[in-house]
Amino acid sequence: MFGDMMGMMSKIKEAKIKVDATKERLNSVLIDEASNDNKLKITLTANRAIKSIDIDDSLLEDKEQLEDYLILTLNKAIDKATKINEAELAAAAKDGMPNIPGMDMFK
Q1: Is 97:15 a contact under the CB 8 Å cutoff?
Q2: Which residues is 33 bridged to in the sheet?
Q3: Domains and CATH numbers, the chain
Q4: Is the pTM value of this prediction over 0.90?
Q5: Considering just the CA atoms, what is the radius of gyration of the chain in Å?
């Protein structure tokens, strides 16, 4: 019984190490998103840290339009990054988790 428990604890520790390594790796995964007309381009990491924003000069003339562009484009980029982040972390956690009956939340 204790051998099984120690084995499970070891597997859980391995899973945490894999998840932490995946989180670190996701800092270097870049997601590029642009407005439909390419007047605004945003790059962020899969951990949702903004790396760059490129704004066409024509957007600088209208504050409300720029705000709309930023909201729409940032939301699209964050949505993409979140999907990648969640899929990668779930895969890392699933690979390292022991097979515990009733604990199939990562499957």
Answers
A1: yes
A2: 42
A3: 2-96 (3.30.1310.10)
A4: no
A5: 20
Q: Which residue has the tokens 């490129």?
A: 54
Query: Helix 2-26 and helix 63-96: axis angle, to 10°?
Result: 150
CA–CA separation, 31 and 84 (whole Å): 9
Residue 92: partners with Cβ closer than 8 Å, 6 or more residues away: 15, 18, 19, 21, 22
- Which residue carries 């996701």 as its tokens? 26
Residues in the chain: 107
Are residues 75 and 66 in contact, defined by beta-carbon separation less than 8 angstroms? no
CA 4 to chain centre: 33
Mean pLDDT by 10 residues, the chain (107 residues): 68 83 93 97 96 97 97 97 92 68 51
For tokens 């270097």, the residue is 28
Element (H, E) at 96: helix 63-96
CA atoms within 13 A on the CB side of 68: 7
